Amino acid sequence: MIIVIIGAQWGDEGKGKVVDLLADRFDIVARYQGGHNAGHSVYVGERSFVLRLLPSGIIHPDKVCVLGNGMVIDPKAFFEEVDQITEQGVVVSPDRLKVSTRAHLIMPYHRALDHTSEERLGNEKIGTTLRGIGPAYEDKAGRRGIRVSDALSPDLLKLRVERNLEEANRIIVLYGNPPLRADEIIEEISPLIERLRPFVAETSHFLAGARKEKRRILLEGAQATLLDVDHGTYPYVTSSNPTAGGASVGAGIPPHHITGVLGIVRTYATRVGEGPFPTEMLDAEEPIAHLIRERGNEYGSVTKRPRRCGWFDAVATRYAAELNGFDSIALTKLDVLDELYEVKVCTGYELDGRVSDTFPAVSQDLRQLRPVYRTLPGWKSSTLGTTRFDELPPNARAYVEFLSDTVGVEIGLISTGPERDQTIIMEGSTMEGWFAG
Ligand code: GDP
Prior knowledge:
The chain is an alpha/beta fold. Helices cover 35% and strands 20% of the residues. The protein folds into two domains: 1-100 and 203-437, Adenylosuccinate Synthetase, Chain A, domain 3 (Alpha-Beta Complex), CATH 3.90.170; 104-196, Adenylosuccinate Synthetase, subunit A, domain 2 (Orthogonal Bundle), CATH 1.10.300.10. The strands form five sheets. It has a ten-stranded mixed sheet with strand order 9-7-5-2-10-1-11-15-19-20, with helices on both faces. Strands 14, 16, 17 and 18 form a four-stranded mixed sheet that branches. A two-stranded antiparallel sheet has the order 3-4. Helix 6 (154-174) packs across helix 7. The longest helix is centred in the middle third of the chain and has 21 residues, at 154-174. The structure holds guanosine-5'-diphosphate (GDP).
């Protein structure tokens, strides 16, 4: 069984908790795109882990984790994270952590280029995490990237760094920053590559073998659907494809071997950084945004940036469901809305006097449209820790059912708090089948 799990909105949907819950039922957890900008918070009892690059499965001692070919990996960040969780008592060894030979490396000049590129864009900046991820993907598409397998050969690494740096330094200097030196980069990176060597593997071959042996594989998307470079709110997107198709390419798994796709959807929306956000709570609704931000701890887990908060966007979520082919949805953070008198759901976009239920390709349209809302009554009572759907307040049940109906996908799981056991599994759902199987 191979299941893909993807955020349906702009990220931070609480995927960390759901993946962690599901990881119990899987043998292998693999990531297929992105880099160390993912920022999952995972809580296990009293312990909390922040994972940026490693799949959440790494916390479970009997799981194998894979960093697939579609990823970009900063070796320094990789070992910082490995060392951090090792200190927290997690055993990380090459037999349970495998890095693709075909993944691309983030080099120090990619970080410098990320800063330069954002400075150059000024007001139009993308709001990247400045970790060099975008420039590493640019080099990949430009066919000058350095793959993990290249770096294992010291001569090739030196050649590539020297050649690439010539180009990168032109841009770095142009924007008034000091040029980087190839020898210093090689000196910094070489010991890290040697340390990485035992973790390097032919990961798609490994995954194919695991599937044949009937091992259960979870493919964990980072960022989310609306940040997909093709399908998201371009140009305010990430540089890779978090959507389900990306899982096939980025893990090297044939599409028809994927058994199912689970969407992670939050009961409201947030967005970090720049970019259009149709249902953002602004002005008069700022106190509601504030309440949600505090109750839902809506601050970047890596950057600590306060997240922009907004109402549930059924148009965007339906678009995500269609693109990814969600078989089931895990709905998170129901408890965060407990104190609201009423909850709004955006069911259409009004632009130039016309109401549409399709998600536009043009970022400018997304900025100008007026969301059409359906207002539902709040439930004004605590749902925190509820484990059965029939024990939810009637208005909370009605809200959940309304979301499922407007998005057109079953809700298989409802999260009612940050802890693992604060969860409702919907009886008879596809999701329940995955849990049981
Ligand atoms: P992720 O990257 O998608 O996992 O999102 P974050 O790292 O931003 O995690 C979301 C935060 O919400 C973490 O602090 C979680 O513990 C917390 N969380 C997840 N699910 C729930 C929930 O159902 N209720 C509440 N109150 N918090 C939750």
